[in-house]
Specification:
Elements: H1 2-24, E1 34-35, E2 45-47, E3 68-70, E4 73-77, E5 80-84, E6 87-89, E7 96-98, E8 101-104, E9 110-113, E10 116-119, E11 122-125, E12 131-132, E13 140-143
Parallel strand pairs: 1-7
Antiparallel strand pairs: 2-9, 3-6, 4-5, 5-13, 6-12, 7-10, 8-9, 10-11
Length: 147
């Protein structure tokens, strides 16, 4: 038992070390500056339910050093949610990305603060990627909750 634990733990440590080296090497990945604070000038909208978990996206190679990676984001659409695919883009100057946030109101209902770029505390909207994620294949993916 001790020998197999050492062997397995050694593989785990080696894998962790390799991932750390890749993550710290700047292997072509730059993510957008973000903020956790929704813009105060936009009121949250009522939603029927909290958004589903994020969709896994396949990150294509970084096209140029000037581009920043932005993950996709959920957007409410009636009773459904629509995933807006992320990708490589040129981030707006002096702006931060607000990733969207659901919250529970005092009456128990859900509210949604939309995903948007924020500059000087004001929303400036979503920036479409110049090079989208390789998957999902469509620019918009609809999530229909089970009934």
């Amino acid at each position: 038992m001790g020998r197999s634990c050492i062997s397995i733990c050694g593989v785990g440590v080696s894998l962790l070390l390799a991932c750390s080296v890749l993550a710290c090497s700047g292997a072509g990945f730059a993510s957008a500056p973000t903020t956790l604070t929704p813009p105060p000038s936009v009121s949250p909208v009522p939603i029927p339910m909290a958004p589903p978990p994020a969709v896994a996206e396949e990150v294509p190679p970084r096209p140029t050093e000037a581009m920043t990676w932005v993950d996709g984001c959920w957007e409410p659409s009636g009773q459904n949610w629509v995933w807006i695919r992320g990708g490589w883009l040129i981030a707006p100057a002096d702006a931060e990305l607000f990733r969207g946030r659901a919250e529970v109101a005092s009456d128990g209902s859900f509210l949604w603060h939309a995903c948007t770029w924020v500059k000087n505390g004001r929303p400036i909207g979503w920036v479409e990627p110049l090079v989208p994620a390789a998957s999902p294949l469509s620019q918009r993916t609809i999530y229909v909750p089970p009934s």
